[in-house]
């Protein structure tokens, strides 16, 4: 894929990002690829634009995101049905979703211009919550859905079902339902497995379970996962991809399934998922 137009979106709080926005835009100009800037990104570079992320997605062939994994998740969460490929340039620290460092932006632009980038089709979560406002539609997440206790230091009780069959009642600090993309995020920190991006599965991981035999379980991405809060005294909150938490009331059954559309996430040539895992997790093969 060699795009004719790209949308440029940056995290405004990252050090040096204003200079990087201007430099990346100039590099795309050199290779005759039209650049549209999101409004806050344009303001950083002293340019004018009133474009939102969904508008950029509707008008461009590729979204170039300058930031970290959180910035990509934020952009992906705004796309709705206007899904466009995302190319991430890392301005943060640990990043599994970005595919180039900010220092290598020239090489990144060259790969984009010459059509050398590849794409991994990333499954997304679709959540349906009873009582949502009409017309609001399902909630879409790229990484995970996290059920938690909020700020209270107590266990919560969650009944989980898969394809209509009871899994268990989790007595835990919370529960994570993650895609393969999200398996290297909170789920990994909670002891869950790392899933290859196109493995075709989701993982359900309890957070600090009271029953020590409760462990992560991997299910097909075609499964319907249902999670229900069952204790009135124990408030439950739901967060999708780190966004604003939502209260889940007793008796509400949150349905989680694979979203209809995947998200194409860019990768540089000769860079595999496993090489990224080795680099980011510092797997050297040594016992030191």
What name does the CATH topology of the largest domain carry? Answer: Rossmann fold
CATH architecture of the largest domain: 3-Layer(aba) Sandwich
Within CATH, the superfamily of the largest domain carries the name Probable inorganic polyphosphate/atp-NAD kinase, domain 1
Structural class: alpha+beta
Q: Helix count, per DSSP?
A: 7
Which strand order spans the largest sheet, edge to edge or round the barrel?
A: 8-7-18-15-10-11
Mean pLDDT: 92
Count every beta strand, where a strand is a DSSP E run of 2 or more residues: 19
Q: SSE string, helix = H, strand = E?
A: EHEHHEHEEHEEEEEEEHEEEEEEEH
Radius of gyration over C-alpha positions, nearest whole angstrom: 20 Å
Per the principal axes of the C-alpha atoms, what is the gross shape? globular
Beta-strand content estimate: 25-35%
Poorly predicted regions? none
Specify the helix fraction band.
10-25%
What is the straight-line distance between the termini? 42 Å
Major sheet size, sense and barrel closure: 6 strands, antiparallel
The top level CATH class name of the largest domain? Alpha Beta
- Whole-number count of domains: 2
Offer a quick outline of the entry.
The protein is α+β, with helices and mostly antiparallel strands and 288 residues long. It has helices at 17-30, 39-44, 53-59, 69-78, 105-113, 186-189, 273-280, and strands at residues 5-10, 34-37, 62-67, 86-90, 100-101, 118-122, 125-128, 139-141, 144-148, 156-162, 165-172, 174-178, 201-207, 217-220, 225-229, 236-240, 246-248, 253-258, 263-267.
